[in-house]
Amino acid sequence: MKRPTLSVIVPNYNHGQYLPACLDSILSQSWQSDELVVIDDASTDDSVEIIQSYVKRYPQIRLQRNERNQGVLYNVNWGMENGIGDFIYCPGADDVLVPGLFEKSMRVLADHPHAALCCSIGDWRELSSGLNWHMGVGMAERPCYLAPEELVKLGKRNKLFIPSNTAIFRREVVNQTGKYDPRLKWHSDWFLLYVTGFRHGICYVPEPLAICNIHATSYFQRGRRDAAQYRELLEYLLGRLTHPENADVLPLIRDSGALFVCGMPMLKLLLRREEYRRLLTPTFLRRNLWYITQLQLKRFTPAFLGNLYFRLCGYRTRSVGS
Description:
The protein has helices spanning 19-27, 47-57, 72-82, 101-111, 148-156, 171-177, 188-200, 219-223, 227-241, 250-256, 263-272, 282-300, 303-312, and strands spanning 6-12, 35-40, 61-65, 87-89, 96-97, 117-126, 132-135, 144-146, 168-170, 202-214.
């Protein structure tokens, strides 16, 4: 069997202080990528100098520089379109990979050539609060392929979550779906993950293999603070999901309750718009209301108490080798 190829695309804007940890964790993987492209989006810090120092030492690294700031989605889409690999992985410049992510993911993907992507458990760390939890825990006990109908069952059991920071996509599937939709902004990754996942199924490795550092000033955190902008985004999201092109996956997304991640704004929109009320399933309501409650509790829960809760209630799993 031909060894599948992998492109790694790292979009960067003023993340020079985080880049060494990110690039070192990519370069130390046992399964080496076939290309590593760092796209600098007109940074004003020392990012370019740091990237160039890596280019001199590692010939597989290539620097792509934008003359003006284009935004993260533009850069990721550039990588999706121009990457040479059969598969593509786009970590944030402040993400850190755990040893084994590429090898374990690529091996299970090679065994299931119809899968849209492979994800593992995401190790999420909120830097402002000190909270640390795992996403995607409990979907399976061993590396495997999860068919679309199995994803629905996982959603009904509150176990379905595809951590974007761990997802290695089959590039052909992504390009067929339309890459990252700029109008979906910080939910463009959710749309791509779940539409392709429910269409083709996903592979899963039940280990925490990538660390996502969550900043208070991140694109996602800033965007959700503008209620009117967020409502407009969600209306567009629902419009895309209910478009005939996604008629095959909408019932599965509905039945899994996967829209719960949009929180209270999504609940209000579904209640207000009659044409979308069919998405108000018991599974969605249960997952959505529990998610809203968790977000409220997180605002005033001390880190030590929150992290204890995560450990006791299954939101953390053992790290590799522990």
